[in-house]
Amino acid sequence: xxxxxxTHDPALRSWVASANEAASEFPLQNLPxxxxxxxxxAEPWRIGVAIGDxxxxxxxxxxxxxxxxxxxxxxxxxxxxxxxxxxxxxPLARTTLRRTLSQALREGSAWQQQLAPCLVPQAQAVMxxxxxxxxxxxxxxxxxxxxxxxxxxxxxxxxxxNYKYVPIGYxxxxxxxxxxxxxxxxxxxxxxxxxxxxxxxxxxxxxxxLELGALMGTGNELGESISMASAEDHLFGLVLLNDWSARDVxxxxxxxxxxxxxxxxxxxxxxxxxxxxxxxxxxAPFERPAGDPAPLPYLDSADNRSRGSVxxxxxxxVQTGAMQQRDEPAVRLMQSNFRDAYWTLAQLVAHHTxxxxxxxxxxxxxxxxxxxxxEGQGGSLLELTHGGKQPITLPNGETRSFLEDGDTVILRxxxxxxxxxxxxxxxxxATVQPAVSPVVNPVERAVG
Length: 448
Description:
Layout: E1 33-38, E2 46-51, E3 54-57, H1 58-64, H2 69-79, H3 83-87, H4 91-105, H5 112-115, E4 119-121, E5 125-128, E6 136-139, H6 143-153, E7 169-171, E8 177-179, E9 182-185, E10 188-191, E11 199-202, E12 206-207, E13 210-216, E14 235-242, E15 245-246, H7 247-253, E16 267-269, E17 274-275, E18 283-284, H8 302-307, E19 309-310, E20 313-319, H9 321-325, E21 331-337, H10 345-353, E22 364-366, H11 381-384, E23 392-393, E24 399-400, E25 408-415, E26 423-424, E27 428-433, H12 442-447
């Protein structure tokens, strides 16, 4: 697993002044990667590193800097916007470039004159999804979410017998992944009401899900598995993930094969990938509650027990359409922590590949909804409103059982610990737009 080195020193300061501010999500100790281009330009996408309120354009930096041959080779795929190719190079490449960029951006660095012209204000950058995601698997690691939702449908047995033995997951739809800041139409689908026949129309119980997404670095060959001992070496970094859910469609369609149209219409990612190296100061022991079964041997290791969890504070904020019109800020709905997940990132990788399934650079593993153990820590409206039966009241008097058109949901995440610089993920935001009328068969339209 990733270990502390000089790049994590909390005393480090950058010549990019905004990175030294205590509230900055992107101090020198973070250095996440994202794919961007300048607003209003038609320039090709390129990879940048967030530093303070700016982006270091690695396309321009690769041309201006007096880099060694080794570093120039590492920068080449990033300069052309190909984060996947850099991901595939493995952990040594990541740590090597991280140390070089850290040294180049430090206060007093001789690189300042060369790299200062390569900075782009984040406010002038248009962000894309950080990499190409070939496959997307969504897990169900949030035991408090699984229990709360299970109680709504199975009060006598909220958790099914396999939950504490198997990291449950299903395959999502990578084609509908979008970066933060987009809008999406309320989905259409079938759902069951009190009527004898199912209804069709716009979803009435639209919800968000607070998740983390893990992006794969190096993959594995088909037929080979990844062990717990090496699982984290295959992970590149983490993003925030909102797995939007049509709860009424989901309730009707999910048996016997699980979610389909209730999940595949939109998923939002934060645009900055916080690398596993940046998260090293925030590792924590992985502990099961007393009396719970130990993981099977292929899902267990001493390293995983000692520091397999990651201490990440997660939040959901909402700004309704009415709040936007009155220029009122978003309000926080809840807060939880990824330490409460029942399965670790390493266990997800090991389980996904134990049957020989091959993962590839850029593949996305969703964590499942990250709810906390306390009342009010639900990572979805389904939990916060107890299935829609107890609407929440916002400070301006509006109420919500589920999302309405015009609502913007913002996920936020950060790591903080005494003796370390606080690092953040940036916003993961999207806005619900009205449903679009379904396409009608031309013959049926003519007849109608």
